[in-house]
């Protein structure tokens, strides 16, 4: 395992600028966020909570003096160092599967993950020997018992990644033998949930019974416990029995609710109080109707001094793309950078007219774009707490399309997370040696603008053509709009109750991220945008430098995406990586020789070459063509056409497999983040930051007191 690069998420300056009330609010919200840790661990793997307990127990056994622990166990320091690196990786990822930070930018990007062993959500294997870890664990009866439970799954090379259950992959979202065996059964469960207004984000699914007579339990996250049978309204005689079992993650959510009740007492306004009360209610009952109401309220709380996100948010790790991982975030406002982002938001509506599906419609935005583009709340914050398997550079929420289109959404950039990118030049070895220094110097400038555009205009644009209820449409079905790809009337749209993720299933996340990435790349040459961020023909880093670097990054990131492809299963482990690779494949086919990939297998050398003088003449039209296709498929619910195009573009052939071998041989060091903690002393909230070392990361987690039941 490569030694991780550890980065401290410094937040002191922003935190100390808060009022006493805001500090208390941020403290209790941070405690609520970290209290969801065990929910995430349970969602990752059966052994993850035990591994966490082992790390914490060994820390407390030696009070952080790992050298003394090694001496007592008669384990050499090199072996102990390997364990500390493993522990830091495990804690930073909240589990023993590594999410690549490749561009956590893209699920905001950004939104978006992670390199470790090659595929997204790849298993983190300890380098410490089994015998050395046994010796460390043998110092306490409790840790010895834990070690005996986890020694096999912890060290086993398979399952090697997360995904559909199989010989090489596993999931904790679907429990029981053959849990995803029958598409017919899964459709029956989905129909029963839809007819009973049960949203899937905070659920897991467990299969039991025999292969011939299965039954299913929907495990719903809540403090309250009960169970009851549900059925689809028009239940066919062959439908499987489905039971809702409330109380999944009960203990953790009860503790989260305790801290939410404390936070309500220190909220800055009635909007925050009402938001927290709705979140609290949803955690108590499991009803995501309350949670959706909280998100509508959250969107209206503009640019708060303390920004928060709490709930079952991102569905990246669910093989079906609908069930979401718990996430808890607390950020402190970065007012100077937020002002610049607000300036961009103020001109965003004019930029919509530059997009391929809007151009040519005059003053109208056309049938595939909202006529009213409401600038989102766009802010920059410093992360105080980020309880998630991946620390995104930014986020775009909520993920519910009806709220986004009817109420609005927020874009948030985590400035202290973004700064970590300026110290990294991932994929530098794929740039020609003559350009490497310039690429490294300019990369962050391009990256930042690309991420910002991805967020505000990538995830913020588009109109879903829908039958909103039986017989009611948001377009004229008697005179449907013309599809710009075919010149003929559209033939598909969203039916009542259908959503983007439900229709496009496993494609939804990666296609959405790819479309958002394409929007950011397509608009990055707009002078109005570049000037806003200080890039002109006369600036130190010129506008042309930013544009060229972004197109070069497209090539580098496309190749780097191959790290997250598993040739054994022929599956992509990470949505953003697949998107980057698909974009590169399109450009290689469609930009008339703009890109060239030089592959030297003997010397393990892979180089992206780009004709600088033709970047905009050939590159931008090519991006436009791909973007238009994905956008129209998305707007019209044309899943079949989208799948045909996207699976072709993201197919990994023999040539790409040769590229992948070189990429993996030179993978980047994994990135680990070290967060601060807060605590109350004599009624005043104090902040404690830790050294950016493996020992510092472990200490920060130990002092979060995840197991404590008292406030």
Automatic annotation (TrEMBL):
Gene3D superfamilies: 3.30.540.30. It holds the Pfam family Peptidase_M49. It is an enzyme of class 3 (hydrolase). One of its GO terms (molecular function) is dipeptidyl-peptidase activity. The chain crosses the membrane at residues 104-120. Its EC number is 3.4.14.4. It catalyses: Release of an N-terminal dipeptide from a peptide comprising four or more residues, with broad specificity. Also acts on dipeptidyl 2-naphthylamides. One of its GO terms (cellular component) is cytoplasm. Its cofactor is Zn(2+). It is found in: Cytoplasm. Zn(2+) binds at residues 454, 459, 513. The active site is at residue 455. Belongs to the peptidase M49 family. This is Dipeptidyl peptidase 3. It comes from Aspergillus cristatus.
